[in-house]
Every structure is written in structure tokens, then in C-alpha cells.
Specification:
The protein is α+β, with helices and mostly antiparallel strands and about 130 residues long. The chain has 2 helices and 10 strands; from the N terminus they run βββαβββββββα.
Length: about 130
């Protein structure tokens, strides 16, 4: 019998809108390195995410305690990934070398947004050097 170790790294994010990199707040872009380029950026009502050419940076804002948790995840730490599509939504599922897993939900997707999500998934898989 096989046993798969499962530990959730973060809560589920439900990104509802892709945003332009120039519309990101300063507290988000402050985490970029000098030569790092933003590939895509998304937001929820409170949270933000940047997917760069080297890593993903996720901002988990908690309005109840007035703080934010910042996840900086280099693509090279990803051991496997999957993409899931439903009628108007999608998800990127990632497993890390450490055994942790993460699910990034993308909601309110039209056909063009699904194409962009596929591009993002391909970008992540290419950067972590996983052959599709």
C-alpha cells in the first residue's frame, strides 16, 4: 500500500482577477530583485500574487489581525504540478520537494483567462524544469 504525505502549505487562494504589474502596490513590488521580471500578477479581494521569472510571491492578508503572511517560493523547489479546469474556474496544484502541497484557485474564468492560466502553468513547469 502506498502512502502519500500530505501537508497543506497555505490556505486556499481564490484569485479572481489578473492585474497588470504596474497596478501592484509598493509593498508587493518591494520583494522583487533588481533583475527579476514579473510574468503574471493576480489578486483576490485582499491577497496578491506575483509570478516572476524565478519564483512566486504570495501575499496572504489577514484583516482580523491586521497582518500579512508572505510566501516566497522558488520554482526550483517544486517537484510536481497539475492544472485543473472546471466550467468557470481552474486551479494549479503544486507539490514541493519538502512534501508540502499548495492549491491556487482561479475563479470567474472566461475562455481567454483559461488560456492565460495555461500559459502561467507552462511557465511554472518550465522554470522548475519539469518535463510535461
Amino acid at each position: 500500500m502506498a502512502y502519500i504525505k500530505y501537508k497543506e502549505l497555505t490556505k486556499y487562494f481564490n484569485f479572481s482577477k489578473e492585474i497588470d504589474a504596474k497596478d501592484l502596490p509598493g509593498y508587493v513590488t518591494a520583494y522583487l530583485d533588481d533583475k527579476e521580471k514579473i510574468f503574471k500578477a493576480y489578486k483576490t479581494l485582499r491577497d496578491r500574487a506575483m509570478f516572476t521569472d524565478e519564483r512566486m510571491i504570495l501575499f496572504d492578508v489577514d484583516p482580523f489581525i491586521g497582518g500579512k503572511k508572505i510566501h516566497i517560493i522558488p520554482y526550483k523547489s517544486i517537484s510536481s504540478g497539475a492544472i485543473l479546469f472546471k466550467r468557470n474556474s481552474g486551479a494549479i496544484l503544486l507539490s514541493f520537494d519538502s512534501g508540502y502541497q499548495m492549491k491556487l484557485n482561479f475563479i470567474k474564468l472566461n475562455p481567454q483567462a483559461k488560456t492565460e492560466l495555461r500559459r502561467l502553468f507552462s511557465h511554472i513547469m518550465e522554470k522548475c524544469d519539469i518535463k510535461r
